[in-house]
Specification:
- It is a single chain.
- With 127 residues, the chain is of the alpha+beta class.
- It has one domain.
- Helices cover 26% and strands 31% of the residues.
- The protein is built from three helices and five strands.
- It has a five-stranded antiparallel beta sheet.
- The protein is globular, with a radius of gyration of 14 Å.
- It starts with 14 loop residues before the first strand and ends with a strand.
Length: 127
């Protein structure tokens, strides 16, 4: 059975972020925390981020005015995903050094790509 066979595809309800995606999403946050908004460190399964998008993400975090920190386990209690017909829309609640749980979210679209997944970082913002 392929890795993609067991992830819920419910267009009407949000569900928790699958545990199999959490390390990848945490790696994205780690890169952003260290100022690598273009993901030059190459996170496995994550599509390249354009210079334009990287600049927008960096600007959004900077204008928020707090420093990102690593995702704690608590983040997975409130982060969600939902099937949108062609991809999952994932919203990861971000944490900062100053606040702990913040108003910032990481939005990622996750696509089935054969037996695995492709992660497309969409934005970081306050919803």
């Amino acid at each position: 059975m392929s890795e993609t066979a067991h992830i819920l595809k419910d267009e009407h309800n949000q569900s928790p972020v699958p545990s199999s995606w959490r390390n990848t999403l945490s790696d994205i946050v780690e890169a952003f925390k260290e100022g690598d908004f273009s993901l030059t460190r190459k996170v496995t399964g994550v599509r390249p981020i354009s210079e334009k998008r990287a600049t927008k993400i960096a600007g959004s975090i900077k204008s928020y005015g707090a420093q990102l920190t690593s995702l704690p386990e608590d983040s997975w209690q409130t982060s969600v995903c939902q099937w949108m017909g062609d991809y999952w829309d994932v919203m990861v609640d971000l944490y900062t050094v100053e606040e702990g749980a913040s108003d910032l979210v990481l939005q990622v679209r996750v696509y089935e790509e054969g037996p695995t997944y492709a992660f497309d970082v969409h934005f970081v913002y306050v919803p």
